[in-house]
Design a protein that fits this description.
disordered N terminus, single chain, 8-stranded mixed barrel, about 290 residues, 11 helices, binds ligand C2E, binds magnesium ion, globular, alpha/beta
């Protein structure tokens, strides 16, 4: 117990928890209606080849514009959606909408869509992907599905059949947030990933003297190269981080150093201007949402 006013502190703490639980429940209720009320939207963040600043693809990131609270971070509402079964509807909407929007863009950029372990474990998931591709006309090789290590913990999630069915459609698979979950290198033996995404928690701090993150990133790159997978560094914000990622031979970079995620119309406008490369412009470019 805390010294002195321990009791007061306890009550304070407990009231806080109650409030958090109530907030969460209210948010969940609102999330139920978010799709029908057209409150969701997708922002796209460019994925850039570090060597020549060429934009090779985008990551689709869902946004929720809450009518009263304004933008709610997916880091907050995706876990709520996952626990309340809303993720299937939301995930399906994101997948279909991302395929539709990107198939209408000039050029052949790839789009990466985040897939929750709950969605991935659904037996109907490969059929949903096939349907999203067929309806949008997006070429399968332009769709990349991002999954995290937690699919290997989800019951019925990471079966060989599931991977085979998806690869059979011709889509690409990326392992997101690599090294932050319940990592086991065993799954890299058999799971057919095309790309490893190095989590921003490794990128952050990698430039500090004596950082262990640097050795970890170098090891991830070596592993990916040996297994013929691409690597993307996530959350690159500063020139120091950018230079380090290049020197460690990370091939693709995603982060505020190039661009924040931006709305569809804004992205299309840039593509129509012929902006297929972006100059890294450092943290000054940061815009907080
Ligand atoms: P993620 O898939 O690892 O996505 C990368 C996150 O890093 C995004 O946050 C992106 O906006 C942010 N980011 C990119 N560059 C930088 C940078 O330079 N600095 C910093 N500090 N952050 C950067 P966001 O959009 O808030 O999404 C958070 C997480 O929510 C995602 O992490 C993903 O796990 C989840 N998420 C987002 N959209 C979806 C979706 O449609 N479906 C599912 N299942 N999950 C999603
Ligand atoms: Mg992702
Ligand atoms: Mg990630
Ligand atoms: Mg992440």
């Amino acid at each position: 117990a805390a010294k002195g006013g321990g009791r007061g502190r306890f009550r304070f703490f407990s009231a806080d928890l109650l409030k958090a639980a109530a907030d969460r429940r209210l948010l969940e209720e609102d999330l139920h209606d978010a799709l029908q009320r057209d409150e969701l939207e997708i922002h796209y963040q460019p994925v850039v080849r570090a060597e020549d600043n060429h934009v090779v693809g985008v990551e689709a990131l869902v946004r929720w514009n809450h009518p009263e609270h304004g933008p709610v971070s997916p880091a907050r509402f995706i876990p709520i959606a996952e626990e309340s079964n809303l993720i299937k509807g939301i995930g399906e909407w994101v997948l279909r909408r991302a395929c539709e929007e990107v198939s209408a863009w000039p050029g052949g950029l790839r789009v990466a869509v985040n897939v929750s372990p709950v969605q991935f474990a659904d037996d109907g998931f490969p059929a949903l992907v096939a349907s999203a591709l067929a309806n949008s006309g997006l070429e399968p090789e332009r769709l990349e599905l991002e999954i995290t290590e937690s699919v290997f913990l989800q019951e019925g999630g990471a079966t060989n059949e599931r991977f085979k069915a998806l690869k059979g459609l011709g889509v690409r698979l990326a392992l997101d947030d690599f090294g932050t979950g319940y990592s086991s290198l065993g799954y890299l033996k058999t799971a057919p990933f095309d790309k490893i995404k190095i989590d921003q928690s490794f990128v952050r701090g990698a430039t500090e003297a004596g950082s262990r993150n640097r050795a970890i990133i170098a090891a991830i790159v070596a592993l990916a190269q040996a297994l013929e997978m691409d690597t993307t560094a996530e959350g690159v914000e500063s020139f120091d981080q950018f230079d380090l990622m290049k020197s460690l031979n990370v091939t693709l970079v995603q982060g505020y150093i190039y661009s924040q995620p931006i709305p569809n119309a804004e992205f299309v406008a840039k593509l129509n201007e012929g902006n297929w490369t972006i100059e890294p412009s450092g943290p000054a470019f940061q815009r907080h949402d």
